[in-house]
Design a protein that fits this description.
By secondary structure, the chain is α/β, with parallel strands linked by helices. It contains twelve helices and eight strands. It folds into two domains: 150 residues, NAD(P)-binding Rossmann-like Domain (Rossmann fold, 3-Layer(aba) Sandwich); 119 residues, N-(1-d-carboxylethyl)-l-norvaline Dehydrogenase, domain 2 (Orthogonal Bundle). It binds NADPH dihydro-nicotinamide-adenine-dinucleotide phosphate. The site of NADPH dihydro-nicotinamide-adenine-dinucleotide phosphate has 23 residues, from helix 1 and helix 3. GO terms for molecular function: NADP binding; oxidoreductase activity.
């Protein structure tokens, strides 16, 4: 085969799909998973040990629950000359620690955050945040592109997870807000078209295009509030909490939003606009 050899460590939902994607793209693929027997049907070669799997390919792609799993799995592996690309979740500081851990053992760590669920791997629109040495990313880009678009965010190993977590935070809070609101009206089906219109309006150019409007305000450090001031919204956010409470529903998320508003109002941002909330984010209690 003209495609480079790849080793995949970790055969959970993500790792097993990555392995079969590499196989389909013509890469000689070796796999290893802590619990054996997960390689069946992937079309890859199952190594008996993690050390053997690492020895099989210069490029070692890792997808496990966290980085502690890598420390445990590769403790006895020879990492000399190996490029480890870890797509597992952990904190940015843990990724920096892991980068030193791999370097001490003669290898190179590229950290990564993959922005699609298993069925999206290798499909149009899939992309992955990478961080670490530019040369290592560039050298293995053709293989890594089998999984999705390669976005190299910088050399600080923490950056892959920083961007991944930034996006995950938007994903979770947006959907969770929808779950709350669907519970409030009692019908997800009835709310769905309104929610869909709002979400698309947010990203457009019109008067509801708050993604663009907020970006400009945050970058300028100016929070104009003449048309919808923060005090008015703090009062409104308290009414949202009351609406959930009156319906006998949980108020954790709307309550946290109302609390953030109240703190901003108390801190003197009442006449400013919504983006003044970034000042609360930057100054945790
Ligand atoms: P799974 O729960 O399906 O798989 C977890 C994998 O981690 C298994 O292979 C498991 O091995 C392995 N593992 C756990 N602990 C250890 C350990 N101590 N030593 C060795 N191996 C260990 O998770 P996913 O495949 O869904 O996710 C993998 C990573 O990808 C996670 O970090 C996740 O946050 C991230 N991710 C997942 C997405 C998704 O939609 N699923 C999307 C984007 C990122 P074993 O079989 O032996 O238990």
């Amino acid at each position: 085969s003209s495609q480079e050899a790849v080793t995949v460590i970790g055969l959970g939902a993500m790792g097993s799909t990555m392995a079969s994607t590499f196989v389909a793209a013509g890469h000689p693929t070796t796999v290893w998973n802590r619990t054996p027997g997960k390689a069946a049907g992937l079309g890859a070669t199952e190594a008996a040990t993690a050390a053997e799997a690492v020895a099989a390919s210069e490029l070692v792609v890792i997808s496990q629950v966290d980085y502690a799993a890598m420390f445990e799995s590769l403790a006895d592996a020879d990492l000399n000359g190996r490029v480890l690309v870890n797509l597992s979740s952990d904190s940015p500081e843990k990724l920096r620690e892991a980068s030193r851990w791999v370097a001490e053992r003669g290898g190179t760590l590229v950290t990564a955050g993959i922005m699609v669920p298993p069925p999206g791997i290798g499909k149009p629109g899939a992309y992955i945040f990478f961080a670490g040495p530019e040369e290592a990313v560039t050298a293995h880009k053709p293989a890594l592109e089998a999984l999705g678009r390669v976005d190299h965010m910088g050399t600080d190993p923490g950056l892959a997870m920083l961007y991944y977590q930034a996006m995950l935070n938007i994903f979770w809070t947006t959907l969770i807000s929808y779950f709350y609101s669907a519970s409030l009206v009692g019908s997800a089906e009835r709310l769905q078209p309104y929610a869909a219109t709002m979400l698309s309006d947010l990203t457009e150019d019109g008067p509801m295009g708050f993604l663009r409007i907020s970006t400009a305000a945050i970058e300028a450090g100016e929070h104009p509030g003449a048309e919808n001031n923060l005090h008015m919204q703090a009062v409104g956010a308290e009414h949202v909490v009351q609406a959930f409470a009156e319906s006998g529903l949980d108020v954790t998320v709307p309550g946290a939003v109302a609390e953030l508003f109240a703190r901003a109002d108390e801190a003197g941002y009442g006449a400013d606009g919504l983006t003044a909330l970034v000042e609360m984010v930057r100054k945790p209690r």
